Structure formats: structure tokens, C-alpha cells
Automatic annotation (TrEMBL), chains A, B:
Single GO MF descriptor: DNA binding
Organism of derivation: Kineosporia corallincola
Protein name: LacI family DNA-binding transcriptional regulator
Alphabetized InterPro entries for the sequence: HTH_LacI (IPR000843), LacI/GalR-like_sensor (IPR046335), Lambda_DNA-bd_dom_sf (IPR010982), Peripla_BP_I (IPR028082)
Every HTH lacI-type domain range: 9-50
Alphabetical list of CDD domains matching this protein: HTH_LacI (cd01392)
Length: 345, 345
DNA sequence: CTGAAAGCGCTTACAG
DNA sequence: CTGAAAGCGCTTACAG
């Protein structure tokens, strides 16, 4: 039995494979309800397996980029990278959405992971890129079920083997921040981190912690704060840190936003940066560059991460496999003006 | 002669109208070259007039947002507004692109305004939103020819009657900046503006200028600088301003980026803000909020502008007409910590 | 350069 | 719940 399958799958391809009529397959594709559940399930499975796309064939290839929170300096860098990679020939269109929006799942029905994933597939998206977004296991599974590849940038939870992700060497970044501060002579340092549950935050902290400990200057427990990655956390928790009886001489912030918030907390108290306090940020977004003083940061190559995510997504969409399910790009230390030797006591 | 046109136009509709065969229309649609130029032109015209979309009918409605420069704090706010409005039922997909990319215009051919516009139409975009982007007259014309509505946000050149645009009350914004500084007691003020050719920059400057002049404190010619809207201009030109023998006591910057650059120039020189110099920004992006000290700004409602642009674009795409070809949303003064009374001499 | 005709992929009213 | 058959929108090899 030679199943001829030259080009793209048609209704006839599926009908033959399923042993049903073309009409029945058509009904399943169009979501009519006069098909038995069993037949429907089997046909749907076959449609997926054959990458059935409808007669439109391939429309313009499109990748959907999903952000969780508000767009910010961080997302800009990632998007720039994605956009530039997408502009390279042959070119992909980039769709932007927040959460599960932008996909029509049918008249006002509540959007479930499955309906969203099916909508994404039906809209013809080649792949989905999710950015620092807690994609649930359900979302990922539904997407896989709909045959839409998913690439996660900077996953909050450690990468499962079944999800492809792109991150940065956060642990190494924490180390370089510690080494920089140690080399300047700081020994009483604090960590003002982001969400405790976030994998990237944990890695940054552990790299930082271990290096200081090895150097004989362990970080005191009361100088370790896990808050959120946002500006407000820098202002509030950073301010509280400064109000201590014995404040640190340097702070490693878990993000640029936190660092910038901390710098505002310093200004309000007349604490000078870097004379009275050294601050190291993490990310190297435009915020770091525009900060006054310009921020010393551990740079994570966000644009490059966006570019790699896009190219990986395209490769998966083309049916190729990827060498590794998780890629980590190298961080690097960028020294600007927010760090200096501690004052002589 | 009753031309029956119930639903969507088909090849037959066009063929009948053009007095040619269905086959010929099909060839035009598919860009085959065995059609005479005259026939092709006529058929293309008819395809447009009938809003021919192909059998796919309406795909998921999609709006293409085109940015010129790099994504920045400014674009974030606009995009947030567009995205939120797009997420409201019934929901539109949002495509992001920079310049004329993201559209497949055929094998490696140089992208001309016409081929781009045709590609946009063929890709099924309902409308295009262009952000602070020098859309050329050619682009706009080509888009109009392809029946794709265009809405420009914050047009660089004064809105022509034929282009729909959304802006802010820049002139009034300039006035409110001047009034704020006058009320604090400043009389020796400078304008550190963006691109001289940009309409929004001119309006800001004129509103500012006229108010100070009326108040009897005209801005000295040597304290008026038109640079670019970027950070670097704030650092360099702003720094030069501070190095004058008689520096101003307050500066109205044409954008948040310029203001933030100026604040860095101040830091480098030990000039305190607002004690030694008051700074007013323009935009109210996240940069203003995160600046240290937080920036007093003339706020332009960028998110709202994004939302209005999207809704206008959708209305145009639906064939409705708009009341006004140019809408200006109100600016407002947001007082934060970068302005204060001038020091007593 | 044009179109009649064959044929493809799909949908749907209807018979079973 | 299923499918034979009619028919629609479109494409294309080919004759003129």
C-alpha cells in the first residue's frame, strides 16, 4: 500500500488515512457538530499529523510573540532582536500579543489553553515565542497538540526537557557581579533581587552568593532580599536597606529596574552613587544607559536572545530538530559609573 | 442591467465588470506576465474597487504597526495603547514591523512603495498604523491605491488633508511648560528641542516661546537649540548649555530622552536638579517616571493615542468615514521632582 | 495576449 | 452520524 503524499495534505489525504469520506473530514475541519466524537477525535489527530493547513496553503509565515506584563525596557530589547532577525530574508511577519489575546477563538467563548492554541494554529502562526511569561504547562501542551512550536525566552521555571527555551548564563552573571565588587574592595554587600520563584533570579543570587562566600565575605542573611523585578521594589526595599543602622557599601540588583529604583531611593536620602554606595544592575536595557549615573551592569544579550529564539522557532516550524532544548547565551560585565571603591572608614 | 453583488467579490464578479474571462482575472491576481499592461491595469483597478480578497475571504483581521527608529520608551507606550485596544472584542491581531519589512514582496526584489503596499494588501492587513515615521507621500499614495487605510501617529510633517493622523496638543503643551516655569519664578529659560523639521517640535517651541514673550521674558536666541529627540543630544547640547558663562535656570526639553540626557550632563558637572537647574521633559514615558529625580513633564497621552489610532484604523477599514482627518489629544502637566524655584542670586 | 475547458480542493443540502 | 453528488471558486495547460 503506497500512500502517495507528494505536496501538502488535502482533505482527500486525510479522508483516505482515516477511512472516512472527504465530506466528514471537511465537517471536522469546519467544526460542524454532526460528527461523532470518536470520528472527530481520530480525524483531528490525523489533521495534525499531516500538518493540514487548508487550501490557502502556507500564508505569509508568521511568528507570534507573547508578552506577559506591560511592555518595558526589557521587552524592547528582546523585540528588537526578534524584529531584526525576522526582517532577514526570506522574512517572517511578527505578531505581538499579550497573554492569550489577538486570536479569535469564536464568539465570546472563554479562552482556554486549548481554544487559544487551536486559534493560533488556525490563524496560521508558524510558531509562538513566549517572553518571561509563565506559560502554563497546559498552554504548552495545547500548543504542542496543535502542532505549533513554542520557544520560551528567559523561562521563569527551569526548562523542562519538552520545552525549547533561550536564556542567559545567570549564574555566571552573578559571579561576575561579585568579582567586580570584590575587586573594588567591597565586603559588606547586599543582594536586592527579583521574584524568588523565578529561576533566573535564583541563579543570579547563587552565583553571587557562592563567589562572596568563597572569597571569605559571605553575604549576611539580613542583606538578602527577594522582591520583584520592578522599579517600585527598588525604591521601597532598596530604601529600607539604606535606612539600616549598618547599610551595605554595595548592592547587586536583580534587574535594571530595581537598580534604578534603588538609585532614586539614594537620591531621596542624599546617598551618593557611587561615592557612598555602589550599584550593579542586571540586564543592560536602555534604563542602564540612561540612568544617572550610568549603571554598571551584568549585561544579558537580550537582542541576541530574541534573534536566537526566532531562528530556533523557525527551524522547529520547518520540521527540523534542535540540538539542544535550552540555549544559554553569555552574560558580560559592563562597567559604567555606578560602582567605585568603598569609602575609607 | 442589474449587476448582482451579494456577498464578497469573486473572480467572476471582476471578470464580468471588466468584460474579460475569469482566467484572465486569475492571471492578474496571481501576477502572471501573460496579460497585456492595459488589461492588467484595468483589472487591478476593478479588484481594488470591489475589495477583492480571494477565496480565503476575511482572514483574521490584522493591523500592521510600522515604526521607524529603534523601539524605545516612547514606542512602548504607543504599543501598549494599540495592543489594549486590539484586545477588546472582537479583537484584531497586531503585526509589528520596522520600515517596509515583514511583507513578502517576492523573490529578493527591491521593495518599492508600490510593491510594499501591494504586499500589505495581499497579506490581508486591514490597515496600517505608522508611528513617528516619515511615511513618504509615495508610501501613503501606494497604500491608498491598494485600498489599505493608513493612520499616522504623531506625524512629523503637518497632516495633509488626505492622511488621517493622531497627535497631541503640542502647542498647548509648550504653553503649560512655560507657565509652570514662570509660576516658579524662572525668567532665564532655555529650549532644548528635537528635530527642527518635526512639526511636533515646532509646535512645542512656539507654544513655549509665545507664552514667555507675552509674560515679558522672551527666550534669548542663544538659549534655543534644535537638536534631535535623542538622549545623546541632551548630554552633548545640554552640557554645552550648562557650560555657558550665564547658564539658564531652567530648561524645557523637547522629549523625555533629551531631558534625561541633560540630567546626566548636570550630574557630570555637579549641577543639582532641581536646586541649580529645573528641567521639564515632554512625553511622560517610563523614562520620566524612573528618572532620578523623577521628571516634571508635559504628558502626551501616548497610550490613548495608540488606542485612538487603532480604533480609527478599524473604522476606516470597515469602510466608515472619520469625522476629522486629524485628532489631537490633550497634553497635561505632570509635576514631579525636577522643577523648583530658582535659587536666590 | 486571451479564453474555453478540464480539473482540483472544498462545502453543503440531502438521502439514507 | 455518514457520504454521494452537485456545485463553487479558483488555476492552468493549451488552442487560437
Amino acid at each position: 500500500m503506497t500512500t502517495s503524499r507528494p505536496g501538502r495534505a488535502t482533505l482527500a489525504t486525510i479522508a483516505q488515512a482515516a477511512g472516512v469520506s472527504i465530506a466528514t473530514v471537511s465537517k471536522v475541519v469546519n467544526g460542524r457538530d454532526d460528527v461523532s466524537p470518536g470520528t472527530r477525535a481520530m480525524v483531528e489527530e490525523l489533521l495534525r499529523r499531516h500538518y493540514y493547513t487548508g487550501r490557502g496553503g502556507t500564508r505569509q509565515p508568521t511568528v507570534e510573540v507573547v508578552f506577559a506584563g506591560p511592555l518595558a525596557a526589557y521587552s524592547n530589547e528582546v523585540l528588537e532582536g526578534v524584529l531584526r532577525a525576522a526582517a532577514e530574508p526570506p522574512g517572517v511577519a511578527v505578531m505581538l500579543s499579550k497573554g492569550r489575546t489577538g486570536i479569535d477563538t469564536g464568539a465570546g467563548a472563554p479562552v482556554t489553553p486549548t481554544s487559544w492554541a487551536l486559534g493560533v494554529a488556525k490563524a496560521g502562526r508558524s510558531a509562538v515565542i513566549s517572553v518571561s511569561n509563565e506559560m502554563t504547562v497546559e498552554d504548552a501542551t495545547a500548543l504542542a497538540g496543535a502542532n505549533v512550536p513554542l520557544v520560551v525566552i528567559d523561562p521563569l521555571t527551569p526548562a523542562g526537557a519538552d520545552v525549547t527555551s533561550v536564556g542567559a548564563t545567570n549564574y555566571a552573571g552573578g559571579i561576575s557581579a561579585a568579582e567586580h565588587l570584590l575587586s573594588l574592595g567591597h565586603t559588606r554587600v547586599a543582594y536586592l533581587g527579583g521574584d524568588l520563584e523565578a529561576g533566573c533570579n535564583q541563579a543570579r543570587w547563587q552565583g553571587f552568593r557562592s563567589t562572596l562566600e568563597t572569597a571569605g565575605h559571605p553575604v549576611r542573611d539580613d542583606l538578602v532580599l527577594h522582591e520583584t523585578f520592578r522599579y517600585a521594589a527598588g525604591v521601597a526595599a532598596g530604601g529600607a536597606l539604606l535606612d539600616r543602622q549598618h547599610p551595605p557599601t554595595a548592592v547587586f540588583a536583580g534587574s535594571d529596574e530595581i537598580a534604578v529604583g534603588l538609585i532614586e531611593a539614594c537620591r531621596r536620602r542624599g546617598v551618593r552613587v557611587p561615592e557612598d554606595l555602589s550599584v550593579v544592575g542586571f540586564d543592560d536595557t536602555q534604563l542602564a544607559e540612561f540612568c544617572s549615573p550610568p549603571l554598571t551592569v551584568v549585561r544579558q544579550p537580550l537582542r541576541e536572545m530574541g534573534r536566537v529564539a526566532l531562528r530556533t522557532a523557525l527551524r522547529l516550524a520547518a520540521g527540523a530538530s534542535v540540538d539542544s532544548h535550552h540555549v544559554e547565551l553569555a552574560t558580560s560585565l559592563v562597567v559604567r559609573a555606578s560602582t567605585a571603591a568603598p569609602r575609607q572608614r
